[in-house]
Design a protein that fits this description.
Blueprint (H helix, E strand, L loop, with lengths): L1 E13 L5 E3 L6 E5 L2 H6 L3 E2 L5 E4 L5 E4 L2 E4 L6 E16 L5 E3 L13 E2 L1
Antiparallel strand pairs: 1-4, 1-8, 2-7, 3-5, 3-8, 6-7, 8-9, 8-10
The protein binds zinc ion.
Length: about 120
């Protein structure tokens, strides 16, 4: 699953493409926050339809010249996770330890199986 490692949460953002928000850096992922408790509990997991609703660049948001615009169709006003960096992680099926998806085997038990 995707974990946001560098992010901010913009609060009470109106989903209106006419309103822009100053944002210095281009986001790599933008997601409407659905369940902040679960988002925090999963270590900032971007789980589509569980912790967040992942939004599409161009269709739901854009960023240009330091201005962010958000115009999702699923809400009129929402808290929005703006991620500048994400890790793709998996959990060991043997011991449950978390590791980067790119790492082939578990550091804890050397098992190669993984779950999302
Ligand atoms: Zn393991």
């Amino acid at each position: 699953m995707l974990i946001a490692t560098d992010f901010i949460i913009l609060r009470n953002i109106k989903a209106n493409g006419l309103a822009s928000h100053p944002l210095e850096r281009r986001p790599v992922k933008v997601a409407t926050l659905i369940d902040e408790g679960a988002f925090n509990k999963t270590g900032h997991g971007l789980l589509h339809n569980k912790t967040v609703f992942l939004e599409d660049e161009v269709h739901d948001w854009n960023w240009r010249d330091g201005q962010f615009r958000y115009y999702t169709r699923i809400a009129t006003e929402a808290d929005v996770v703006i991620a500048f960096a994400v890790d793709d992680v998996v959990f060991c099926t043997q011991c449950g330890a978390k590791r980067l998806k790119a790492v082939a085997s578990c550091e804890q038990c050397a098992e190669t199986g993984n779950g999302e």
